[in-house]
Amino acid sequence: MLAALGFITVIAMLILIMTKKASPAVALIIVPLITGIIACAFIVTDPEGAPGVVNFAANVKSLGGMIAGDDGLLSVAATGVMFIFSILFFGILTDAGTFRPIIGGITKLVGTNPILIAIGTSILAMIVHLDGSGAVTFLICVPPLVPLYDAVGMKRTTLATIVAMSAGTMNILPWGGPTIRAATALNVDVVSELFMPVLPAVLVGLALDVVLSALLGAREKARLGTVKLTSAEFKMAELTEEEKKLARPHLFWVNIILIIAAIVTLLFSGFAPAVVFMIFYVLATVINYPKVADTKARVDANAKSAIMMCSVLFAAGAFCGIMTGTGMITEMANTLVSIIPHSLGKFFPVIVGIIGMPASLLFDPDSFYYGVLPVLAQTAEGFGVAGVNVGQAAILGQMTVGFPVSPLTPSTFLLVGLAGVDLGEHQKKTIPILWLVSLVMLVVAVLTGGITI
Is 338 exposed, middle or buried (0-12, 13-18, 19+ CB in 10 A)? Predict the structure, then answer.
């Protein structure tokens, strides 16, 4: 019953979000809360040595602890702090006009051709995601590119899709979280045994990312037509009087140094991203708007974005807390394993590879790689298939390519928040593309012998 409630929760939540029947925050809170209360009638407790007893009242009371506990709000608290201060940091730099010259420089390289802009976005996301952090990638790539996409007339959903696709494929790297989890769960070497055999498939996937980005750019160009894009020189929109008052052109290089320092600190200092952005928000504020009244005005101006993003983030924390605390995620995993016929054991790697990307919508990486994967690998070995092949198939989609669309990943909400797009729209546009990339890599891995069946 818990498994059924889990699947109902996820499906209902996705339907509500993607059909815009409810906002993401509302869907992420109300759906698991309702199914969580129902689940309390099926959670067996062991009070005072009486096994097999269901204490409905006590179970319902425990929901609050699930939501607020380590698997719930506490798991996203640090990310929420990072969201707030990163938005304020980049908001202040945007208000100061820091990104206008940068966008002007980019357009001199790629012009106003949507195809080149899309390809450049993909390559930039790949390079930045070398550190394996989705949050860092989105924070570095999205804010500077939003004004360019707006000015040219390209959809922000295209920006979110391209960044998600490129970052997701790069997340298969040996130091990426899912790959490390898979190697740990299967007790194999992460580089030589797990990653290197599928490297050709990953390279094909990265090349496909660039091709698909170009196609998305071509679609944008066709939609926009040629009239808007024929000017030889890209011109930014004129500043309003209010924007002129806020602009700090004389501090351009100081602000650039701040951005570079923030990125370097994120990548190499070992400090938590929340701490980094708290510090650099203060520096950006003191340097650009030292007067208290000006500082307050900038916070007020950017508070709406911060509140919207954090409300969804903490709602996702509540969702994860209930799903984990009630045991629904664990039972969902057990059910998926049990319904696969043993006769298909030798095809387990292919099956896992096919469902890997969509499974990102159902399972967080810990639940899948530490809970589901070992069982699948053991079953496959019973049919003469190496367990490592199951792990290799899994990393080609589950929370790698699939992480930037999963409601179980905080960075997904960071991406859509920074890009200013609706989560449902992002998922509808991006999920088919990410699944295609994952399936192509799976086919290449089988054909090149990286995955044997």
Answer: exposed
